Amino acid sequence: MKDNNIEGRNAEWRENLRRSMTAKERMKIPRVKMPELKPEYRIKCNDEVNMGITAEMAVLEAKRCLDCPNPQCVTGCPVSINIPQFIKNIERGNFAEAAATLKETSALPAVCGRVCPQEKQCESKCIHHKMNSEPVAIGYLERFAADYERNSGSSSLPVVADANGIKIAVVGSGPAALSFSGDMAKLGYEVTVYEALHEIGGVLKYGIPEFRLPNTIVDHEINGLKAIGVKFETDIIIGKTLTYDDLHNMGYKGIFVASGAGLPRFMNIPGENLNGVMSSNEYLTRINLMGAGKPDWDTPVLTGKNVAVIGGGNTAMDSVRTARRMGADRAILVYRRSEEEMPARIEEIKHAKEEGVEFLTLHNPVEYKGDETGRVNLMRIQKMRLGEPDASGRRSPIPIEGAIEEIPVDLVIVSVGVSPNPLVPKSIEGLEISNRNTIMVDNNTMRSSIGDIYAGGDIVRGGATVILAMGDGRRAAANMHEALKNMH
Fold first, then answer.
1. Measured at the alpha carbon of residue 463, what is the angle toward residues 108 and 237, in degrees to the nearest 5?
2. Domain 167-262+419-487 has CATH 3.50.50.60
3. Which CATH class is domain 6-152?
4. CA 357/CA 173 separation, integer angstroms
């Protein structure tokens, strides 16, 4: 039974909290530091590096929240979490209610608390910045609340509307798909997710290493969706195993395409076809999803003692840190711009340095050479300087004439971007796609050129963050629901 006086109760305890500490006292509390595994230990295993904060640390950090009348942190969150409410619940020690608040709008709070770039989203809007103070650690608190609920075994389920009998198909099972599925299930739809691989989770499973996002966390979030009625089917390739017409004949009234961007890009330089030069997609998928490197698994993966990873994003950082764990004596990150321009999270860069990764910035590979067996053994790299900013706002790298170096390598992992696999978009006649094989949608509704098809995540963006993909999923769910409501 719903408590009609919940707003009144919330207002009362928030007022009491305000009286308990002044804003000045809250400002004096230093931002919490995340406990971490020691670098010398963690490079020898796949254990999660960030260990999580304690209840005492969480309550103290929550006290730093100034409970702004117009909280900008919420505007910085792509899935519109009620950030002040969940934080104030932590402050008063009601951790279960904090977790319930998160689940009202986020299908994956334990995931987002770990991999969402909060420093560029919610935390970037925190009022503490205006006072020359570090922002409230919203991401750490989100992880704490989600982990508390999971570890306590008292997982709450969101409110689900009565079943309306309308079937919805979802293509892919990454963050956009999971977010969309959760919202549609809560609205009473019969949702079935079709995944091409043998495990659910998409990029959360194959693209992000367990030392950053353990698979058990992803599985728990997926089980939460199963508990509210979402069905999952693996080993089904939409466009091959089932076509768009097949889905129609099966009675689906709406389709959400979230098949991601799993097609790696290369640089088209000499020697890229040598053995030992591979994409980060292949490298991470073999290790994260297929167990390569584990003593009791048969999946092969090349390893090396002198490993170079090309790129400066989170995937490049995940790859080079994985290479250290796979036994590389020397792991080098080669990036054509300076460290300031790196798109990777600051935390990822910090962890990589602690783990002994060498940063070779303002360098770009121009050729790979191999030994008599066809295995890469040398990388030729061009020294660069920064010119004027390009379309992305970052300064363009310009080659310095004649400045070429040679470095011995026995494994090169290329992480310079991804494109959507054209299979799904090209299998649907009349679907408008870009020259990059992304599905064209109305950015407000996420609706495609075919009325019953909506899309989101990397299949639309061509490569983005987990939280932006989740935002797409929520927006698509809200707009598909409106369209279907008006039809029935």
1. 75
2. yes
3. mainly alpha
4. 32
